[in-house]
């Protein structure tokens, strides 16, 4: 009995030992090491944010997940729209675009005007004499000339500047004053400007970097820019070639990368051939040619870019001559000045289809622009109107006018200018 009694007394102790199990010999060492490690923050446990156990226990809430995904997609779309909306869209360099502001010079300063309201804003001012603003093809910047007090060969030396559309960020393009005789616009990518420069009595083609990186004279010999000529022009849409005329009345193209020159129309003994200009898509050229040396006998030629398929646009009965002035942006029409005498006495503007299907729409502009040689015209980017100005400015203020190429009417604008037409292109 005594031994059984001892076992019953020791049984609780034995059960406790079996329950706890043997204590590992390295337990004290583990405790000493882990006591020095900082406890993991509660926020770092995934279970704090995602109910892992509940997801396993409950059916997957596809409807809630879909709603969250939809809200996330909407948020991303709104963010993308905000980013895109904060960036200004630019128009294509050629073809139809939305009509923006007109840039012009007056009193030695540069202005922009909204043709719809006639509200003008001075964008470049100061004591200098600034003139001849021209927009880049994307409408983001314009180039203009700034006169100096120096001359060479009787021609005033000028500097070319580029500015943003609002007149800020003025950048000098030409490193020093030069004898700029013609400003022929931006390249399609807006990185270069084409100039004609007088060098010891000869006209040279010069390409200037808009960032002020320097000038490059094209080795094409002496070019020719007669009164009323648009001068050399970039070939659309890449701008990798330039069309120009020479003194022998021949028309040529120079490739900018290689400097290679090819002839489009050969030399002639005619009194005059000139005003060559690319069509908006670069597939054709327009130019004028005198049919006879007696009086005004100019005719408009339309040819392929290589000079083939050359044809003359028709004249209506009674008309004697017509001279090319500018292409429409869609490339289907040209603006011509048409005469019914051997001079400008009865000259009218004419919007003529380039396919030769008709003689076009005539617009009498003589009540606003005096009938004399070579008024300048530019189509609005949307082709809904044409901006013109009287010839022979020479820095004097003149009235500009708008032609309606569909209705065949013309009206004077409210501002006066001493520079050629320049219309800003905007994204549609």
Task: Note down, in words, how this protein is organized.
With 428 residues, the protein is mostly beta strands. It has a domain at 2-85. 14% of the residues lie in helices and 39% in strands. The protein has helices at residues 2-20, 27-34, 46-49, 52-57, 62-85; strands at 98-106, 109-114, 119-124, 130-135, 141-152, 155-164, 171-172, 180-186, 192-199, 202-209, 215-217, 233-234, 241-245, 251-255, 261-265, 273-278, 284-290, 298-304, 311-312, 321-327, 333-339, 348-353, 361-363, 376-379, 386-389, 398-404, 409-417, 423-426. The strands form seven sheets. A four-stranded antiparallel β-sheet has the order 3-2-1-28, with no helix packed on it. It has a four-stranded antiparallel β-sheet with strand order 4-5-6-7, with no helix packed on it. It has a four-stranded antiparallel β-sheet with strand order 8-9-10-11, with no helix packed on it. A hairpin with a 6-residue loop joins strand 12 and strand 13. The radius of gyration is 38 Å and the shape is elongated. It starts with a helix and ends with a strand.
| Biggest sheet character | 4 strands, antiparallel
Average per-residue pLDDT, rounded, comes to 84
In terms of per-residue confidence, which ranges show pLDDT below 50 for 5 or more consecutive residues? Answer: 52-57
- Which structural category do the helix and sheet elements fall into? mainly beta
Tertiary shape:
elongated
| Order of strands, widest sheet | 3-2-1-28
What oligomeric state do these chains adopt?
single chain
What's the number of extended β-strand segments?
28
Beta-strand percentage range: 35-45%
Termini separation: 112 Å
Helix content: 10-25%
Per DSSP, the total helix count is 5
Global Rg? 38 Å
């Amino acid at each position: 009995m005594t031994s059984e009694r001892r076992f019953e007394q020791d049984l609780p102790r034995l059960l406790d030992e079996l329950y706890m199990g043997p204590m590992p010999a390295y337990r004290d060492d583990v405790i000493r090491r882990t006591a020095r490690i900082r406890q993991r923050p509660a926020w770092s446990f995934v279970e704090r944010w995602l109910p892992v156990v509940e997801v396993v226990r409950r059916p997957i809430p596809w409807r809630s997940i879909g709603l969250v995904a939809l809200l996330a997609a909407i948020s991303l779309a709104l963010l993308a729209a905000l980013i895109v909306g904060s960036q200004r869209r630019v128009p294509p360099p050629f073809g139809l675009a939305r009509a923006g502001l007109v840039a012009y010079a007056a009193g030695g300063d540069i202005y922009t005007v909204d043709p719809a309201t006639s509200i003008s804003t001075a964008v470049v001012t100061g004591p200098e004499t600034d003139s001849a603003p021209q927009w880049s093809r994307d409408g983001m910047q314009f180039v203009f000339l700034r006169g100096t007090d120096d001359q060479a060969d009787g021609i005033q030396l000028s500097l070319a500047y580029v500015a943003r559309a609002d007149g800020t960020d003025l950048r000098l393009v030409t490193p020093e004053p030069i004898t700029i005789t013609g400003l022929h616009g931006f390249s399609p990518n807006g990185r270069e400007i084409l100039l004609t420069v007088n060098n010891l009595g000869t006209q040279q083609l010069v390409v200037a970097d808009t960032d002020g990186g320097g000038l490059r004279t094209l080795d094409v010999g002496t070019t020719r820019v007669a009164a009323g000529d648009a001068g050399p022009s970039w070939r659309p849409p890449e701008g990798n070639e330039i069309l120009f005329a020479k003194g022998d009345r021949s028309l040529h193209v120079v490739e900018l990368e290689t400097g290679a020159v090819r002839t489009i129309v050969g030399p002639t003994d005619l009194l005059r051939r000139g005003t060559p200009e690319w069509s908006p898509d670069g597939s054709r050229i327009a130019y004028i040619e005198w049919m006879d040396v007696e009086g005004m006998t100019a005719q408009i030629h339309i040819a392929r870019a290589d000079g083939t398929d050359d044809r003359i646009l028709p004249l209506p009965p009674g008309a004697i001559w017509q001279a090319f002035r500018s292409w429409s942006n869609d490339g289907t029409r040209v603006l011509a000045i048409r005469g019914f005498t051997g001079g400008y006495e009865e000259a009218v503007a004419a919007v003529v289809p380039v396919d030769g299907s008709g003689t076009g729409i005539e617009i009498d502009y003589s009540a606003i622009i005096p009938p004399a040689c070579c008024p300048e015209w530019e189509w609005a980017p949307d082709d809904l109107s044409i901006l013109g100005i009287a010839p022979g400015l020479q820095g004097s203020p003149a009235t500009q006018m708008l032609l309606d190429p569909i209705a065949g009417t013309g009206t004077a604008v409210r501002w006066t200018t001493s520079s050629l037409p320049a219309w800003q292109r905007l994204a549609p």
